[in-house]
């Protein structure tokens, strides 16, 4: 489509809407100046990096979503500050702008007209998806634009944008660096499980007819692609779900909502090295989504040969190989205060990120966090620092993580509970130490307390994604207060897991650590998972990892191999969860001399890894590996390393363990909350900067990225 034709088409659409072109330009400020900037961009030469980002929250007919505009902001900040896109080359269509006609016209002119071979192109859509039966009686996936119905008086004529149309548009671009992100889903479940996460899917409308304009547009695209002399370029399509009946969800955090997939994806891309493959990225993204309470799995779709091996750098063309947790977006007049965008901090950590946390610039200066609202924050140069070189666009990396000591487990009360049930539940949870309650969907929650669908007189604990946590539902007719009392020990375990997850810093740790989980008893031993600290080893390309959570057969003999590539000895501890219902820990036994067995109980010993050394866990030859028992379950391990001994952690482990019983290397953790608190205290003690943050010593932990690394491993046993 020629530029004149595009402008004429936009003009005709505006005329139908009753808006003059002058009014459209005036509306630019209300829409972040997008229309004005877009008209200016039309006159500029073809860029090397182009993006079209679409997000819709307020639909005409469907219930409102909350996180789609945040998704657009997440992607835009990432592309500009992490991957070097020019703001004028990023076109965003949000809310009223995101009609089917505008989306297609903007694609043709902003991307189709300007893209040249070798350019990087990013397309993003956040909003509702659905399914529609076309004139050939085939059911197709479709994206729902702002103008859902072609005619408000006849809602059966729908104005959807077919997924096939978008894929045809993407394939028509003359570059092999095309990436599309669809944070939507197409299947709306018939039954609504208790959930704290909105679902981005609309039910299929029976007897709905697709607008003829969309059908004609698709036919034109197919004809043009078939007549094209050049080869059709297959794009990389990153989708929020991997199966047709999975739901794309939104996550509610303090101060904002976002698409679960978009947030997890952009957060990882902030921290990751461009040398990582897209397959590696999605493996981390899935783990992050799982920790936020969802079982949805992202997918990579492409007809390219071996798309999993494509590096981030191949499609995003980054200007820098440096990963970061955020960026300076504005500076204040004093030259000492800046605004930060913290898109690179893991979401479960961001919720509890404390004042006085520190960030470092590539140039060496440090910033101290003074306030934070959602993803935005204010920070200052320390008083004793005379630096005046702060500039917009400078990346910031985590230096010191400050976490409050009074973190609670937050339980959301499902809105499906009767009023008297919510009152009783609130009263009962108030008696459980370090547990707070909120209304599900209105404030962030870690878990949900709700009724089971069948029978509806049973209560249980759910993930915020609606998955019932095993062994948390009891007999029919149980009173609310009795159910809460029964769940109390479980809540303590889940709080402990929340605390040790807050140590995760694979992206920001300055300790060079590699770790792998291996099956060692098969005919051909194999690596199940690998993790490594990205900031210290980010220039290397990781080996391929599965896109899905790996499955370990029951009866497998497993072993960790941990490599210390730093210049200091490090100490190691392992904590974890089994099926989200029981805590486990690695017990490093020190077996006394044979002559002393009758008189001396075995003790726990520190695990120390010398610089350059690789150790196996378990270490003793007599207990080479540990056997994975049945039945099937999910397992999550947190492998935590520090430059200082875990003295308090080992003391608490030793206190709770009956040393005369079975001495397996991985066993039940009987006092998980005490151990988790001791772990944070040990990491706090390992951080020399704590003495400089006097105001936070008594009520916070201060963890220095130079002194600890925490890697997460999740797998299924089947």
UniProtKB/TrEMBL annotation:
One of the Pfam families matching this protein, by short name: Peptidase_C14
Domain Peptidase C14 caspase as annotated: residue spans: 48-303
Top-level taxon: Bacteria
GO molecular function, one term: cysteine-type endopeptidase activity
InterPro entries xrefs: Caspase-like_dom_sf, Metacaspase, Pept_C14_caspase, UCP_caspase_lke
GO CC aspect terms: cytoplasm
One annotated GO biological process: proteolysis
Name this protein carries in UniProt: Caspase family protein
The species this protein was found in: Mojavia pulchra JT2-VF2
Phylogenetic placement of the source organism: Bacteria, Bacillati, Cyanobacteriota, Cyanophyceae, Nostocales
